């Protein structure tokens, strides 16, 4: 079967790797160069986008910021999953909030902003501090402001006004203000839904962000009650979107109550641990779902942690000498802060996982790999 993926980054690469044993042939559409390429080698194919669409049995996406005309073309083929509405919702925080309100899934209190009066009203109604985000662009904490005092309103508004003004009639820009949530931690749920509406859901993952970017995830330490809460949200949202494929939902955990932060209509960085922690990774389940194949087991095999490799020229080979460590390199050119690869480490129990993270912390400097040493101490003490 032939699968076309919109986007040619590491997520397409890992979907392609997961699809190969299933006899799924993957090509990727690089939105920047507008070329069809091989997702592993980068080799450019001679086919046009339309030819790749015609040749595909199923089409999917690795990210949500896809040009509208490309999305429309793919949808016309009736082979595109998870569908235009899901991709649009994941790429626009205003649509995302509307979906959450409609399905009665809790999120941070918010206000949409298109003019200065709305910002002033948001400060009055929601209080300070506020997290202000662009609705349509932004990833890894980009396109965000933190408003802590009234003196900052003028400066932040002028930057917001520039973003709003840069929108067009066909692609208008807006802003959202959210109450700053004093969360205890961040977690995410990842699951897959097939064409018949069956779902499989992975164990909840605890995520650590540094400067707005995911640095470390741990799976395998969650209690049933919080897992059930996350699964309820997942099922409501996946059903409302008539979703097909892998869907990720990020939450704030506030004293055991989950508030949705973001919805990602795709495989997600916080699910990379599933490559070693489960029988069927998020990448394989996404490929299975869009190809119309039965979904695979999401059961946790072993507690697993994932460490992001950000901006580094390579992954130190010595990490592979630690038990049950795998390294995943994306083959991209290094830039400061860029997601270059990740390291997965599994263990028989959480204590052993802590010991293995301690061994990795000896190799991986804290400034480049924040939180590894700290997480290892916490796992060992618990
Ligand atoms: P991603 O790469 O996950 O798509 P993003 O740029 O879309 O990131 P968010 O996930 O919305 O942005 O925010 C990045 C981080 O900023 C969050 O993981 C969280 O740590 C913090 N943050 C965002 N919104 C809030 C909020 N309302 N209250 C407190 N912290 C927040
Ligand atoms: Mg996020």
Automatic annotation (TrEMBL):
What keywords is this UniProt entry annotated with?
A: ATP-binding, Ligase, Nucleotide-binding, Purine biosynthesis
Q: Name one Pfam family in it.
A: RS_preATP-grasp-like
Q: What class of enzyme is it?
A: ligase
According to its UniProt entry, one GO biological process term is:
'de novo' IMP biosynthetic process
Give the EC number(s) under which this enzyme is classified: 6.3.4.18
Q: Which GO terms describe its cellular component?
A: cytosol
Please tell me where ATP binds in this chain: 93, 133, 138-144, 178-181, 186, 209, 261-262
Give the matching InterPro entries: ATP-grasp, ATP-grasp_carboxylate-amine, ATP_grasp_subdomain_1, PreATP-grasp_dom_sf, PurK, PurK_C, PurT/PurK_preATP-grasp, Rudment_hybrid_motif
Task: Tell me a Gene Ontology molecular-function term this record carries.
Answer: ATP binding
Its UniProt entry gives the catalysed reaction(s) as:
5-amino-1-(5-phospho-beta-D-ribosyl)imidazole + hydrogencarbonate + ATP = 5-carboxyamino-1-(5-phospho-D-ribosyl)imidazole + ADP + phosphate + 2 H(+)
Respond yes or no to whether keyword Nucleotide-binding is given for this record. Answer: yes
Q: In which pathway does it act?
A: Purine metabolism; IMP biosynthesis via de novo pathway; 5-amino-1-(5-phospho-D-ribosyl)imidazole-4-carboxylate from 5-amino-1-(5-phospho-D-ribosyl)imidazole (N5-CAIR route): step 1/2
What positions does the domain ATP-grasp occupy? 97-291
Quaternary structure per UniProt?
Answer: Homodimer.
Q: Which HAMAP family does this one have?
A: PurK
Q: Which PANTHER family match?
A: PHOSPHORIBOSYLAMINOIMIDAZOLE CARBOXYLASE, PURINE BIOSYNTHESIS PROTEIN 6/7, PUR6/7
- Its biological function? Catalyzes the ATP-dependent conversion of 5-aminoimidazole ribonucleotide (AIR) and HCO(3)- to N5-carboxyaminoimidazole ribonucleotide (N5-CAIR). Catalyzes the ATP-dependent conversion of 5-aminoimidazole ribonucleotide (AIR) and HCO(3)(-) to N5-carboxyaminoimidazole ribonucleotide (N5-CAIR).
The record's comment on protein family reads: Belongs to the PurK/PurT family.
Q: Supply the name of the protein.
A: N5-carboxyaminoimidazole ribonucleotide synthase
